[in-house]
Task: inverse folding
């Protein structure tokens, strides 16, 4: 028989975080580590036998060997058919789309998202369910429970599959189809956006753009869509070749980790529009000439202008944002008279709302925006949405944002990250904050008074599942807000995230620099949490 049953010992550290299991490559390279987690996935899925899976990743180091292992294990576990992106590449939103379009049972995504790659970098694996979205907590905890008890896994003795040529092959009874990673995704984008208007903008000679693929998965997507289909000048896409170590970079599209694009957009003769996506293509950053659009504002602006894009011409059912995301989109929802939901951090929490037709657009402060077209956030989709708006409104990015603030007011917003903090110290800081709630309530800080403080908990309006401990919120009587959370995606120590928000209705004050406008609140956040004393840090690692 070609199927081997291999005895193994369980690993107890395979608890999926905010978005799947993310660890150092060296952890994944431990004997049977990947195999155990994959077997735990297969064992937890009821009804997988005889079904189709989609498998792909962001091309980082270990992507190819992991796919070979998954294919052999899928064959040994009764999967009927697997679709794989050529060269093992599929962006996260493209996996989501393929699962939906092919009516697959689910998909496995190999990525550690925006975390660095390479032999000393990070790797990750995540399971997506039939709706194309990340598995909900009920599924991820079943996988974890199974992983903790695993004693054997099943694998086929087949040779490696050729991943680099489109076509059909197989292992045992299982069919394998290597598909072009871009085509079906590009067709979906053509249905959602006015490609003719965007093409006219690009070929007018009056508009230039730079898109930084950060040597990650979106390079081939962006070259095909922006340059080949929409007529953007060659060279619009930079760092377009996916590399296993992302060229040594940190594929996180923000002002700190995308310095090349930021320098271009702030330099002489800067293009009109700049954008970037992350390792697996679900995050985006939007820039104008010398101008940064915060992800929270981007979500609000897409919502306010949604009917410009053909795919959203009939309007929005509702919108959703994660709790730490600014309330800018709430103001748009109010104006439009549609529902607005506040969910915990993690795209998986939008799935039920999207499936139930309660929301059309959703987004997060962590550079994620998306809609009901797939069940993941989608970097290139956000870029195309902005291009569609720019093509129709014929204003600069900065003008569009300034006019939005003039109508709705501005939610000044920043996030300060303290990375690789001692995990015990970070947990204690959060515990102390919770213990301090009774003292904090009603306390005055200058002209502000604390109105409420709590640990955010969420009851899903669709399935009534409850998620607790989702971040400490401190709200003031003037609407200002401070949020503290520990990241669920880091792989070294703990990452403490501090989110600061203040609403300013007065247009005369909208041009202030963000850190200055929020300086007061930033120092209150440090004092309340006794951050330096408790973590030994006095400056954030990353500010977004
Ligand atoms: C993931 C999740 C997002 C979340 C982000 C940050 O994004 O899909 O929903 O906002 O992590 O999470 P945390 O604050 O816990 O680190 P990605 O792009 O890393 O998959």
Result:
């Amino acid at each position: 028989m070609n199927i081997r049953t291999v005895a193994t010992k369980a690993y107890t550290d395979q608890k999926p975080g905010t978005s799947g299991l993310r660890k150092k490559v060296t952890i994944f390279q431990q004997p049977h580590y990947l195999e155990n987690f994959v077997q735990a996935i297969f064992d937890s899925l009821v009804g997988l036998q005889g079904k189709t899976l989609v498998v792909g990743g962001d091309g980082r180091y270990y992507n190819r060997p992991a796919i070979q292992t998954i294919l052999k294990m899928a064959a040994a576990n009764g999967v009927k058919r697997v679709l794989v992106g050529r060269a093992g590449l599929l962006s996260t939103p493209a996996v989501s789309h393929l699962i939906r379009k092919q009516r697959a049972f689910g998909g496995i995504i190999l990525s550690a998202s925006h975390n660095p790659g390479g032999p000393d970098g990070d790797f990750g694996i995540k399971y997506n369910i039939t709706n194309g979205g990340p598995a909900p907590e009920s599924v991820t905890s079943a996988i974890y429970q199974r992983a903790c008890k695993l004693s054997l896994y099943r694998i086929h003795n087949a040779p490696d599959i050729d991943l680099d040529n489109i076509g059909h092959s197989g292992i045992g009874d299982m069919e394998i189809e290597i598909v072009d990673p871009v085509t079906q995704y590009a067709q979906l984008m053509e249905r959602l956006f006015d490609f003719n208007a965007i093409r006219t903008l690009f070929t007018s000679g009056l508009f230039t753009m730079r898109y930084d693929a950060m040597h990650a998965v979106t390079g081939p997507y962006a070259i095909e869509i922006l340059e080949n289909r929409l007529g953007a000048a060659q060279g619009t896409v930079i760092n377009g070749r996916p590399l296993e170590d992302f060229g040594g970079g940190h594929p996180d599209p923000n002002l700190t980790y995308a310095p090349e694009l930021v320098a271009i957009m702030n330099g002489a003769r800067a293009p009109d529009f700049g954008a970037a996506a992350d390792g697996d293509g679900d995050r985006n950053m939007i820039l104008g000439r010398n101008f940064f659009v915060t992800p929270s504002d981007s979500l609000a602006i897409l919502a306010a202008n949604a009917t410009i894009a053909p795919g959203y011409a009939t309007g929005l059912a509702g919108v959703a944002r994660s709790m730490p995301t600014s309330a800018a989109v709430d103001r748009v929802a109010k104006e439009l008279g549609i529902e607005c939901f506040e969910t915990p951090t993690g795209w998986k929490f939008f799935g039920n709302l999207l499936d139930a037709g309660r929301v059309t657009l959703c987004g997060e402060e962590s550079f994620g925006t998306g809609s009901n077209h797939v069940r993941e956030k989608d970097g290139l989709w956000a870029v195309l949405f902005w291009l569609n708006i720019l093509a129709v409104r014929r204003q600069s990015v900065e003008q569009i944002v300034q006019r939005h603030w003039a109508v709705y007011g501005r939610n000044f917003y920043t996030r300060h990250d303290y990375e690789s903090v001692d995990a015990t110290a970070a947990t204690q800081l959060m515990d102390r904050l919770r213990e301090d709630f009774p003292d904090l309530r009603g306390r005055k800080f200058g002209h502000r008074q604390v109105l409420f403080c709590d640990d955010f908990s969420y009851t899903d309006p669709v399935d009534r599942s409850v998620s607790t401990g989702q971040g400490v919120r401190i709200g003031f009587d003037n609407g200002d807000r401070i949020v503290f959370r520990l990241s669920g995606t880091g792989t070294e120590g703990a990452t403490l995230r501090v989110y600061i928000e203040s609403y300013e209705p007065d247009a005369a004050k909208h041009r202030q620099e963000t850190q200055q406008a929020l300086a007061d609140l930033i120092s209150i956040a440090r004092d309340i949490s006794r951050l330096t004393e408790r973590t030994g840090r006095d400056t954030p690692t990353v500010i977004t």
The chain has 19 helices and 27 strands. The chain has three domains: 3-181, 185-408, 410-543. The mean pLDDT is 95. The CA atoms of residues 169 and 176 lie 5 Å apart.
